[in-house]
Structure formats: structure tokens, C-alpha cells
């Protein structure tokens, strides 16, 4: 069972089951717990943590036992997402923990720009269960409807779910409108029906001034 202890700590109550979380994110636990480190590369959770775009490799851990385990990461805000057989697309750096029963992987979501041809990979989480995602500041959940497409700055994007089509618009960013853009830039455009999670702070991104 996932629950929030405040807005920046995830508490997971376990009765012999397991949870998978970002390595180093455990801050406390009570009861009896066993920990196993897992490394990126391959299928499932290992595929989730491979940052193929940058060559980075994150590590995750599996926690199993009886009691309550507490997770946090750099005082980030934590948001709980319940999945009922659907799929969540989330930046790997924003994924804190998942139920052990959820399937995770990596999917190619498009090209950042024709001139550079950089591929963009995103983590997928699917099945029945809960996931905890992080944001720099309180996340905002925006609904996309058939008549209401949504454009998002890539630095503010966290995750999305639902029946959404994702595309990239090169050569323009929100800063371009203010005359502050330079070099290659792009927006992420969502169409269809679903939810998009954004944070009120922009991370540094690769492949253009965004």
C-alpha cells in the first residue's frame, strides 16, 4: 500500500510483498526488510532505468518484507498514480517507486529534431498497481481532450497516461516567443484523450535550448 507522509515522503506498507524504488531513496523503515540492488540494462525494471539517450545508467533496488518503508529523493514532491491495466509514460528521473507487480520498460517516443536526429526514450509502467512519481514543486495534472490538444515545454514534462498521441514541434519553444530562444528548440504536443503531468520548474534538457 502506497501512501504519502506529507508531500515529500512515500510510505509503503508491506506484508511480505515487494516494491521497487530508486536506489538510495530509502530514508527509514520499521519491521523486517530485505534489500536487493538491481542494475540497468535488459527487460522489465532493468530496461526502465537505462537512459539510452544520454548513456546514463541508474540503479534501482527491490525491497521486500514486513513493515513500513519510507522513500524520498532530494525533497521532491511525490504524486501517486493508480494504474488499472493502462500504461504510464514517465521520465526515468521522475520515477520514485512502483509496485513489484507492475511491468516496466523503455519505449522510443520520437525524434528531438531532424537536424540532429536524437532519439527520445521514455520509461513505461503498466499493469495493475501503484506508482510514485516525483516533481520539482507541486505537479499539475492537465487533461487533454479531443478538441483541446496540449503543448508542453520538455523541461516541465514529467509523465502522461491515456490514449494520447505525442509529437514534437521543432524550431519553437516558449522562450522563442519572448525572443530568448537560441539554437534548436522544440515543444511536445499531445492530442487525444488523457492526462499530462507537468512540474512548475524546468530541468536541463538535451538536444536544444528548451
Automatic annotation (TrEMBL):
Gene3D superfamilies per the UniProt record, alphabetical: Mitochondrial biogenesis AIM24
Coiled coil stretches, renumbered: none
Origin: domain of life: Bacteria
SUPFAM superfamilies: TRAP-like
Name used for this protein in its record: AIM24 family protein
Organism of origin: Streptomyces xanthochromogenes
